[in-house]
Amino acid sequence: MRLCVVNTYFIKISISYTMKNFNIVLLFISLGLLAACNSKPAGEEASTSKAGKAAAATGKSYQVNTSNSTITWTGSKIGGDHTGTLKLSNGSIAVEDGKVTGGSFTIDMNSLKNTDLPAEKQGDLEGHLKNEDFFDVPKYPQSKFEITKITSVSGDPAASHLVYGNLTVKDVTKQVGFKTKINVSAAGVQVTSPPFTIDRTAFNIKYGSNKFFDNLKDKAINDNISLQLNIAAS
Questions:
Q1: What is the reported pLDDT for 97?
Q2: What is the pLDDT of residue 214?
Q3: How much is the pTM?
Q4: 223: which DSSP letter?
Q5: Which residues pair with 49 in a beta bridge?
Q6: Is 60 helix (H, G, I), strand (E, B) or coil?
Q7: In the chain, where are the structural domains located?
Q8: Higher pLDDT residue, 33 or 232?
């Protein structure tokens, strides 16, 4: 977790500055500190809408290799962020004529891990994220994603397609859309994505959100969670 440190650069300001110059310098310092202290997760925000109809998933079905598939997450608050991983418990991707036609996968919420804290502190954060404040894993041990539509992207080195699908977290299902790079070969399918963000409050995860709680100040947690996919199917 990155700490927000207030640098005392203003001490070096010469007393020969006029008050006007002093105020200008102080303004730039304040803006710089504000940017440094308000950590935001990386990535474009995924489009979010009401749930759609699942794609037909015609053609050959490739099974997700759960040992080689990972979702990387980042959550942030004022002063820093935390990162970690989630694993898939099962899934499949359908391919016809060299193109992905549909598919789905199940996320094992019990697999949620933190990767940035020392080992002796990881358990506390993982436990908090799994309790009723956040994902309530004992009640909702799985999250799911089911493809509804795929469209091609051109001129973007980070992505070949836009993938839309119904994401179910806890008891809420929303259609989300985000960029991916899809590689189909004789060996199977590889789906990766640049980082993208979803608004956790759209899935009834409200803990620490300024939208729902007043006077949180530096205890506020960013509503957006950054996700990055690396999914292999064969």
A1: 96
A2: 85
A3: 0.83
A4: S
A5: 175
A6: strand
A7: 1-37, 44-233
A8: 232
